[in-house]
Amino acid sequence: MCGIAGFFGSAPAANFADRALRCLATRGPDGSGTWFSPAGDVGLIHTRLAILDLTEASRQPMAFCEKPATHVEDHAKSPGRFWLIFNGEIYNFRELRRSLEAQGETFTTTGDTEVLLRLLIREGVACLPKLAGMFAFAFWNEDTETGLLVRDPLGIKPLYYSQSDDSVAFASECRVLRHGNDAIDPTALRDFFLWGSVPDPETLYQDIRQLSAGHLLRWSRKEITIECWHQITLKAPDPSILSYHFAHRKAARSDFLLAADLTRVALEESISRHLVSDVPVGIFLSGGIDSTILLALTRQTLGPRADIRTFSIGFEDPEFDESELARRTAEHFGATHTEWMMSPEEGAAEVGPFLEAIDQPGIDGFNTWCVSKLAQREGLKVVLSGLGGDELFAGYQSFDQVPRYRTWRKALGPLRHALAAVLDLQEAGSPFRRLSAFFRGHGDWLHAYHVQRGIFTAEEAAELSTQLAGVPAKTNWTVPLLPSDSKDVISLLEITRYMRNQLLRDSDVYSMAHGLELRVPFVDVRLIETLFSLPPKLRLRRGKQLLLDAVPEVPEWVRNQSKRGFRFPFERWMEGQFGDLLDTARDKSPVPLKLWYRTWAVAVAIKSISTVERCCEVGAA
């Protein structure tokens, strides 16, 4: 895991490399490197968090040349024909390496970066579907004078870019590119108020974009093109999938149990991949189903004697403290558990650095900030998170509620307009106002989903954007093509919107602010493709039943608890220490805020817009 930045064409500013190295320092505390082409029209910048092959042999930028440099100080002068900077992990790199060795390749390192470099040289983008991992990388081919930017299929690792004439600059964090690119995008700001995060490919800034998940950008001296190389789609369930995988079973088993068997195998494979590391791997343990399953299957994979470290946050305030559940679960599986019993003073002290770490506005992430700081403080460099389990196994209320909204709308017929008028009488800021807008609108899946996941109505979001950006914003928004009637639609929306644009982004930014690599075994392309081959009636059973059937080791005190979110006394700490920011949000908002999460959304937007150009060196303490 690392930070990357660079440019194809020309540097966006004379001090670009220095700025990038400062801004990305927490992402790569173990080293840094730069390479610039002799003509100065290509630059590659890298900060390293050493996870695989801890030696200097795997430092980046990494070059392929006939006679590699023999001394570290000669690295930047290597006569490379091909260069790579890479952020992420290729978990199946050993398998890919064996295949390359069988084709005559020889290697000088033991890590995944060289494997990726050799694959790109040999196969180009045709190699991308072979990669099991999370990644964002830049590749330069000196022979063809072409550059390539690539982002993983699920958008786990970020990659931002700005385009100027025939040049492209890019970085792992938006702040690296903000010099001269601070003009606010009113559409992106509106979308933030709609959803609580800025959806890719937008950013808050007009001249900075995100490379969308599963996309690549090609640069040459003639043109710049962007294309999709992988897209998560819903396939028609394969009725033979279970009999194909379990034809060897003689005992009669129901489809539900066979689906659990298939899920178990896919989960074991994913977790085994995500444990590949040359440094210890810990687990964020909340005491919920998803993180408990990670712990149970990690214990199975590593064996009974392995030292497994788990981490959680607790509070001195009993109203919010749920640490006993995580503590009990860790003890049950023989893990070495560390918890931070956070006092009000300690919690309030973290709010300021957390706010400074925000790269793109979002309404969540403080929990990730705190537990990442704990793991880093205890000497960990890699952790697993249960993020993604709710999206894949119907763990959210949205799986029940969103189809219900559409059913209500259809049953009401023309009467829905009368009910919408009644709902409009509810207090401004009430979620019933979003339901009213849905009843008055076209009734598609995305607008039904917005009732559940939205922050402001479309009209409110446009009004807020116009007020804060000073430029009118549109009230309509793009509706993606989706299947017409299935809970699978909700799963796809949760994966491609809430998870991708908020949860994964938060996980990356706030873990890397502490020099910590966060891995997400549930967010795995191979696992998801296996699960999406199952009929929804098997995969999306109430209460994550498929997941519980697949991993019966989950203890009853976790299995039988009601669904809950991880709660922080964040509002109290904000009001106490940053009340002026919240008051500013209330004063500037042209629409009533009322609810806390709406006030916080406006406060985050104001903070993001007004932040002076700087690189915040947070998380170093």
Describe this structure in words.
With 621 residues, the protein is of the alpha+beta class. The chain is 41% helix and 15% strand. It has 24 helices and 17 strands. Strands 2-3-1-9-8-10 form a six-stranded antiparallel sheet, with helices on one face. Helix 13 (416-423) runs antiparallel to helix 14 (432-440), helix 14 runs antiparallel to helix 15 (445-453) and helix 23 (579-588) crosses helix 24 (596-610). The longest helix is centred in the C-terminal third of the chain and has 26 residues, at 487-512. The radius of gyration is 24 Å and the shape is globular. The two termini are 20 Å apart. Residues 67-78 and 612-621 have low confidence and may be disordered.
Features of the shown structure:
single chain, 621 residues, alpha+beta, 6-stranded antiparallel β-sheet, 41% helix, disordered C terminus
Distance between the termini: 20 Å
What about the largest sheet? 6 strands, antiparallel
Helix % is: 40-55%
Strand order of the largest sheet: 2-3-1-9-8-10
Average pLDDT confidence is 90
Principal-axis shape equals globular
Beta-strand percentage range = 5-15%
Quantity of strands, as a count: 17
Computed Rg? 24 Å
Brief sketch in words of this structure:
Helix content is 41%, strand content 15%.
Write the layout of secondary structure elements.
Elements (H helix, E strand, L loop, with lengths): L1 E7 L7 H8 L8 E5 L5 E7 L13 E3 L17 E9 L2 H10 L9 H12 L9 E9 L4 E6 L8 E5 L2 E5 L14 H10 L13 E2 L4 E5 L4 E5 L12 H5 L9 H20 L6 E4 L4 H14 L6 E7 L7 H10 L3 E7 L1 H14 L8 H12 L4 E3 L4 H4 L5 H15 L3 H8 L8 H9 L4 H9 L4 H12 L17 H26 L4 E3 L5 H8 L3 H4 L5 H6 L5 H4 L10 H8 L1 H10 L7 H15 L11
Helix pairs in contact: 2-3, 4-16, 6-7, 6-18, 9-22, 10-17, 12-15, 13-14, 14-15, 15-17, 23-24
